[in-house]
Structure formats: structure tokens, C-alpha cells
Amino acid sequence: MKLLHTERLTLRPWREDDAPTLFALGSEPSIGLNAGWSPIRDIENARDVIESVLSNDFTYAMTLRESDELVGCIALKPVAESVLSLVHKGQIAGLETDELDNLDQTREIGYWLGVPYQGRGLMQEAAEAILRYAFEGLSAPGVWALHEASNRKSERVMEKLGMDGVGMLSHVHMSLLPGEVFWDEHVHFIGRSRWMKNNRIS
Ligand SMILES: CC(C)(COP(=O)(O)OP(=O)(O)OC[C@H]1O[C@@H](n2cnc3c(N)ncnc32)[C@H](O)[C@@H]1OP(=O)(O)O)[C@@H](O)C(=O)NCCC(=O)NCCS
Q: Name one GO molecular function term (predicted).
């Protein structure tokens, strides 16, 4: 995994010793319940999540450069089949030819930020760096992002990244949430040419 730096953040791989902080931040119910997973139960559970979910080459721990504090998480994962099937069914409009031809190389971002660190623009800063890496480092043709229909805070992050709302996934079973929970998810997208234009890259 390539380390990414921004003005205030370092994005690095998750480590086993992040477990106490993951528990402290991820046990707050509003984090997981808005991101699609159950709140972290204890430090042992945090260790398991780090090992089985967060330790891969596309999920970054977000840390403050100044203090090395762990503040949140951002991932740039391979695009989900459910999103691709929307495109194949013609339920996503407006993609350009090069984006349609290389759909399997598009990526999907997902993120959360600990409550004490929200409202400072940190997620926007991290997500801008991740998009730059996706387009310049990985040459991805496009990047997707999904949020539960009423998650306005997450939608704001996507809007400020220049992503467009392009479709909707209805009645998605959230297998990591307790009980039988189904979400309607809004689907956002930004293509490479749009990102380059927004960033004045020719
Ligand atoms: C979604 C989530 C990451 C958004 O966090 P956030 O703190 O609102 O996002 P940012 O870090 O980009 O901060 C944005 C806010 O910081 C404020 N801000 C303060 N200083 C700032 C600065 N220097 N630069 C930019 N914004 C700044 C802005 O006013 C902005 O709010 P606004 O867009 O309403 O004006 C957070 O709410 C979260 O983790 N929620 C739970 C999990 C979740 O929903 N994940 C997404 C699943 S799809």
C-alpha cells in the first residue's frame, strides 16, 4: 500500500495496535450504523475487525500528521457487483465510453470519521487525496460512492468531491447490521475526465 499524505493527515495501513482506538471511536453507534456495520463491542472485537476487514491493500487508517492520532478510515475498494449490475441494466445514465469500456477498473470509496474529529473538513481532505490517487496513481476510469438515502453528512462529502448522484440501489440487505435491515442507497460517481476538468488538469 502506498502511504498518502495531505496537509493534516497521513493515510496508512491498519495495525494490530490500533485496536483500542478503533474500539473507542467505533463503539459510538452513529458511526457503524450509518456506515453499514455493527458498533465495535470491545477491544477483542476491534482486533478481529482489523484482521479480517481492515487489513488489505485498499483500506487506510486516517491519522493526524501532527500527533499520529487515529481519527477514521477510508477505503478505495474494487467496485461492487451490485453497482455494476445497475450499469448493465441501464439504470445509470451519463457514463462516457471509456468509463463504460473499463467498468471493472472503476473503484468505490467508503469512509467514516470518529465523532470528535467531525466538522473539521478532515474527510473531505482525505477523500480528495484518495480520488487523486485513484485517477493519477491507479489510472481508474471512475470512482463510485454509496450512502444510505437519509445520510446527508455523507452526501455532502460526495457533493464537495464533485461526484454526481447517478442512481439508486433499492432494498439492499445490510448483512453486517443487527436484525433484518434493508437500505435504499444513493449511488454517486465521478469519471476521470470530469475529475481532471474540476482539477484543471489537461
Ligand atoms: C460522513 C462523515 C465522514 C462526514 O464527516 P464530516 O466531518 O461532516 O466531513 P468533513 O470532514 O468533510 O467535514 C465537513 C465539515 O467540516 C466543516 N469544516 C470545518 N473546517 C473545515 C476545513 N478546514 N475545511 C473544510 N471543511 C471544514 C465544514 O463546515 C463541513 O461541513 P459542511 O459541508 O456542512 O459545511 C461523518 O459524518 C461520519 O463518519 N459519519 C458516520 C459514518 C458514515 O456515515 N460514513 C459514510 C457512509 S456512506
A: acyltransferase activity, transferring groups other than amino-acyl groups
| pLDDT tens per residue across span 22-66 | 999 999 999 999 999 999 999 999 999 999 999 999 999 999 999
Q: 72 in helix, strand or coil?
A: strand
What does the pLDDT look like over 187-202, one tens digit per residue?
Answer: 999 999 999 999 988 7
Overall pTM > 0.70: yes
Q: What are 112's strand-pairing partners?
A: 73
Atom of ligand 1 nearest to the CA of 36: 47
Distance set, CA 140 to CA 118, 135, 190 (Å): 28, 5, 11
Protein residues whose CB sits closer than 6 Å to any atom of ligand 1:
30-31, 34-35, 111-113, 118-124, 147, 151, 153-154, 156-157
Tell me which CATH homologous superfamily contains domain 4-198.
Answer: Gcn5-related N-acetyltransferase (GNAT) (3.40.630.30)
Å from CA of 100 to ligand 1 middle: 31
What letter represents residue 65's amino acid?
R
